[in-house]
Amino acid sequence: MAVEAMKKGAYDFMEKPVGDQTLLDRIDAALSEDQRRRTAHTECRSFQKAMDQLTAREREVLALLKAAIHERDRRDFGHQPENRPGPPDSHSRKAARRVSTGPHEHPAPR
Fold first, then answer.
1. How far apart are CA 27 and CA 10, in angstroms?
2. What is the mean pLDDT of each run of 10 residues along the chain (110 residues)?
3. I want to staple 2 with a disulfide (CB 3.0 to 4.6 A). Which of 13, 16, 70, 78 is the partner?
């Protein structure tokens, strides 16, 4: 019975007998959760409305910012002591220099 009730969307399931305070506490918790969900839904709709109003260029800039933030986070995570890689081999150093200087620029030889 409890599983069926939860599948149908029940917030909580209690078996009888239930004390008055327990019932009041569960009702309060359910109302708080409902308010939290409604607020999150409203914020999500507002965000989606704002996103829908962006120009093509603004979407492009947003995608670039997202990629830069993702790369920064990935790089920062990679520098944690437990994830710190060993010294790069010669090929990795050359590839990293090529990427950092761009495809048409040639770094000074080392």
1. 12
2. 82 89 94 95 95 94 94 79 52 54 49
3. 13
Please indicate, yes or no, if residue 110 is contained in any of the structural domains: no
Between CA 92 and CA 30 the distance in angstroms is 55
Any domain includes 87? no
Per the structure, the count of domains in the chain is 1
DSSP 63-108: HHHHHHHHHHHHHHHHTSGGG---PPPHHHHHHHHHHHH-SS--PP
Number of other residues whose CB lies within 10 A of the CB of residue 21: 8
pTM score above 0.70? no
Residue-number span of the structural domain to which 62 is assigned: 18-78
